[in-house]
Amino acid sequence: MSGSFDARSVNVTDTVDRNLSTIIGVATALVAVNILLMLALSYIPAVVGLSAILFGSIFIGMAVFAVTVGGGSWVASKGIQRGSLPVAGAGVSLTQAGYGLFGALLLGRASASLRLPAIGIAVVITAVITAVVAAVVFKTDYNFASWQNYAFYCFIGGIGAAAAGVFLFTPLVLVASLLFFAGFIVSLTYEIWAVKENRYASDLRNALGIYVAVMGVFVNVLMWVLRILSMLDN
């Protein structure tokens, strides 16, 4: 087997026949592996401790998240564009590590008895959100091309709100959390629309975009589910 795969040039002008089964299958597999990874890592105290250091500060945590998840997805996308399996794999691995460490911290702080139920609930909620977004995108003719920019604005707004929350008004940290959550939903909307419109001439690129966005939605939902279950468990 060669070290590269047959990837067509990734651009916004080519129209190709997408393979929805491949896109859904690859994205689902990546999400499933990432969830299992974060669960497994949550049982390793040293990893949870490392995650606490990396994400213990809002600013350092955002930087680590941007480098691992954002940087990893960028590297993976470049690898797919160039037809290089090693580069794409390295990018995906970096993204998996970022989500895995963050998820391990969330789960590691919770009671062991709550981890699987929290994951199950978060998976269901995330699946419902994804299904609703997909239904809206595929059943309307609305052009979601600009939503990639809107997602970026949400993330920038989240960073600004987080900074203001640390230095000025603590409740703004909650606003930052909601903006990050909204950013991933908006990003998911764009990525699903990109599949519908054959925006990228690569099924793997489409699957990567959906995976990153779905995992972003999932970790945000998981955070809230764990908080609620922890309060109910006390």
Short key terms for the protein model shown above:
234 residues; mainly alpha; globular; disordered N terminus
* Beginning-to-end CA distance, first to last residue: 54 Å
Q: How many H/I helical runs?
A: 8
The computed structural class is: mainly alpha
Rounded Rg:
18 Å
Mean pLDDT: 87
What's the helix-strand series?
HHHHHHHH
> What is the helix fraction of residues, given as a range?
over 70%
Number of strands: 0
Can you tell me the overall shape? Answer: globular
Summed up, the domain count is 1
**Unreliable runs, pLDDT <50, ≥5 residues?**
1-16
Strand content: under 5%
Largest sheet: none
What does this protein look like?
The protein has 234 residues and is mostly helical. It has one domain. Helices cover 80% and strands 0% of the residues. It contains 8 helices and no strands. The longest helix is centred in the last third of the chain and has 31 residues. The N terminus is likely disordered.
Gist of the model:
It contains eight helices and no strands. The protein has helices at residues 20-41, 45-55, 58-82, 85-108, 112-139, 147-167, 172-196, 203-233.
Task: Please write out the topology.
Blueprint lengths: L19 H22 L3 H11 L2 H25 L2 H24 L3 H28 L7 H21 L4 H25 L6 H31 L1
